[in-house]
Write a structure and sequence with these properties.
- About 60% of the residues lie in helices and about 5% in strands.
- Helix 12 links the parallel strand 2 and strand 3.
- The protein contains 20 helices and four strands.
- By secondary structure, the chain is mainly alpha-helical.
- The strands form two sheets. The chain has a two-stranded antiparallel sheet.
- Bound molecules: iron/sulfur cluster (SF4) (2 copies).
- One iron/sulfur cluster binds next to helix 13.
- The site of one iron/sulfur cluster (SF4) has 12 residues, from helix 13.
């Protein structure tokens, strides 16, 4: 926030909208080209921008900045129509307690990963367009019926993917001076802020129903606001994070509402080393076990997602099909998907259990996940980053010709240059992917060692670190071996550059 202009921009009332509009425009291009353009994946804006560029830029942003894509998410622009529909519906429901863990998100995420392979989403512009439309409709429906922030926190698989992978991101939102927070009476970063009664009434009216945000908003007269950033209603944190007590980026959409709502200009986007959060008991306020289960699921679904693109998978699929006597691809995929996810999950828990047992502690699955879950999360971050970077680097420059083609196809005098495709030569791809996966693998091993020493002390910790450290090493080696296989060049038209 000390970077020139950044604090001023973040406190500007329309900062988030300014970030969302470019992605909304991209979503419109995706829908139009997906539904009306050529149904050839490498030549369509829908398939290339979503499956090559968006995913690649998401992991790059998570690695070098933070959860920038939730910050710029255009889905939350449904807020305008949802307010009007809220008035029509006339009431708002509380999100069911039973769904407040990460269980629903995990189920939706697995369904998405399965559908991605089963329906070959990366190769279908029209399905990709309908996926985007479906996403907007789902966000609208949840936003109409439930309090703001429900979709991001409890439903959106993409959001939870970003929350999870930001475990090692180099930034996080934090209170700058704890003493200021201690003296702060109304906690506007959480509840929101208005400067007078009239603004409060207007905010409630604008929001449709008096049960959410605006009614809870604190009155803070403008004269008390440090570095005032305008009048009106400044909403607080929609995912119920209280900045001074935040220990994790889990559920933080980086919307920066808290920055704008804090009357004392006491919230910053601060820099941290990637090991800071894994070393703390960071998820304790965010449904700890559910988040750790999400980490394990992401790790093995990530492995499955990459394995489905390499030759050994096709051999395994043939063997399973012959064994089951079926040619139904979805069935074979389902069997392999379940085997890898459950088998990998069991292996993960076994190594965690051996780690604790080596220190003389017998623990149940929940306690094991709480203690060691970060190790799985770091391995997941490494592999998803390596995998998505692979696709991004093989087709990053195609964004130029597909947009040229979009206009050429519709009769504009534009010449498409299809020679633009890869960002780096093919021979670099393995090196880049293996370096990324290995770097995160080393971090996972270091965290395994550090947690063992911290939790069990030097004498027992030195024993406990080995099973989990070895698990991290073996998973990293397996990931590098997967990356070394020839992969399907999904979403690219040209063959690889030498
Ligand atoms: S971050 Fe700002 S609004 Fe939140 S408690 Fe601290 S001073 Fe108050
Ligand atoms: S308001 Fe909540 S979700 Fe938004 S940046 Fe602040 S802590 Fe994160």
């Amino acid at each position: 926030m000390r970077l020139p202009g950044l604090r001023r921009f973040a406190r500007w009332r329309h900062a988030r909208l300014a970030l969302q509009l470019p992605l909304l425009l991209l979503a419109l291009f995706v829908i139009v080209d997906g539904l009306t353009g050529r149904q050839l994946a490498p030549r369509n804006v829908a398939t290339t921008s979503v499956w090559l560029h968006y995913r690649g830029l998401v992991v790059l942003a998570l690695a070098f900045v933070g959860n920038a894509f939730c910050a710029a998410c255009p889905l939350m622009l449904v807020r305008g129509p949802s307010r009007a529909l809220k008035r029509l519906v006339g009431r708002e429901w509380r999100w069911p307690r039973a769904l407040r863990s990460k269980a629903l998100v995990i189920v939706l995420m697995l369904a998405f990963f399965f559908a991605y392979e089963a329906f070959a989403l990366w190769s279908s512009p029209w399905l990709t367009a309908y996926l985007v439309i479906g996403y907007f409709l789902a966000a609208l429906a949840v936003d109409v019926l439930f309090p703001a922030g429900t979709f991001c926190k409890h439903v959106c698989p993409l959001g939870s993917f970003n929350f999870a992978l930001s475990h090692t991101s180099p930034t996080r939102v934090a209170a700058l001076d704890p003493d200021v927070c201690r003296r702060c009476e109304h906690k506007p970063c959480l509840h929101g802020r208005v400067s007078d009664h009239q603004e409060r009434r207007a905010a409630i009216e604008q929001r449709g129903l008096p049960v959410e945000g605006a009614r809870r908003a604190a009155f803070v007269p403008l004269s008390e606001v440090v570095a005032p950033n305008g009048r009106g209603h400044f909403p607080g944190c929609e995912t119920d994070l209280f900045v001074p007590e935040m220990t994790s980026t889990m559920d933080c959409t980086l919307c920066l509402n808290c920055v704008r709502a804090c009357p004392y200009d006491n919230v910053g986007l601060t820099v941290r080393p990637p090991w800071r959060e894994p070393l703390q008991a960071a998820w304790r306020r965010r449904g700890y076990v559910g988040v750790a289960v999400l980490a394990v699921v992401l790790l093995w679904a990530g492995v499955m997602n990459a394995v489905a693109m390499i030759p050994p998978y096709f051999a395994a699929a043939e063997a399973v099909a012959a064994f089951l006597g079926t040619r139904q691809e979805w069935l074979v995929l389902g069997v392999l998907f379940t085997a890898v996810t459950l088998g990998g999950g069991a292996l993960t828990l076994l190594s965690f259990a051996l780690g604790s047992l080596a220190a003389g502690v017998r623990e149940g699955p929940a306690a094991l996940l709480q203690r060691w879950g970060s190790v799985a999360m770091i391995l997941a971050v490494g592999f998803w980053t390596a995998h998505y970077l692979f696709h991004f680097l093989t087709g990053a420059l195609t964004i130029v010709p597909v947009f040229q083609h979009f206009f050429e196809y519709r009769g504009f005098a534009v010449e498409t240059n299809w020679r633009l495709a890869q960002l780096v030569p093919s021979r670099w791809l393995f090196f880049v992917g293996a370096t990324v996966a290995s770097a995160y693998g080393v971090l996972a091993m270091v965290i395994a060692g550090a947690r063992a020493l911290r939790d069990f002390g030097p004498a027992r910790g030195v024993l406990a670190m080995w099973p989990v450290g070895l698990f991290a090493l073996l998973v990293t080696v397996a990931q590098v071996l997967v990356l070394a296989q020839p992969m399907e060049m999904r979403g690219t038209l040209l063959g690889p550059l030498p």
